[in-house]
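Q: Could you fold this chain for me?
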Amino acid sequence: MTAQPLLLIQVGTPPDDVRASEGDVPAWFRRALGSDGDALQVVRVFDGEPLPAPGVHRAAIITGSWAMVTDRLDWSEATAGWIRQAMGIGMPLFGVCYGHQLMAHALGGRVDYHPDGIELGCLEVECLPGLSSDPLAAVLPARFMAPLSHRQTVLALPPGAQVLARSAHDAHQIVRYGPHAVSTQFHPEFTPAVSAAIVRGRADALRAEGRDPEAILAGLCETPAALALLRRFVRAVLPAATSCESDRTSGIPL
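A: Sure. Below is the predicted structure, expressed as structure tokens.
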């Protein structure tokens, strides 16, 4: 049977200033995925668009958001129910930031504000020993840089979930929930320009919290390993896009 398009479950849109310079979230993922991004079917659940029924011949990426999982918005809770259905039939899922937290919430974990505040910028992620046997993430280097922007976090994992990577700030940077479901607290789709636009938009609030936005901006960098993880997932679930070639940006075999 021919695979159906890859779903991009869009759970939010950037503030006007970020969107004006960097575009909307689907453009970030299409750019990150290159030609594979042409297969994306975007569903704007935060705007009330209905999700198609989960199916074993589909896969989905759940994006980041400017909303909070703890707000329990109607569209968010409905998407959480959809995630449970998708997990029940083994549908491949990849959650990013809000999507990462929503997957944990949907499957019985606990999400709330991080007790140490915001994690923002390009920061180091450390892989844990269990990652070496993971079919998706095993090729990651022991430590790599990743773009981050979040105030809420997964405080307690769902039953059976496995942590594959952490940062100094957050214990749950990559989580596996099952054979075909994984999520990242970091944003593999961010470019330094996207991160910079987000930091600049929050500059006053960051200064009020005692943070230095200029230092965060100076630390932004390319994050090829984080990006390669997303690309590996997509190429695994899109047979026509699967290749034995290496990702030329990262050197990580796909």
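A (continued): The helical segments are 16-22, 25-33, 74-88, 98-106, 192-201, 203-208, 213-218, 224-237.
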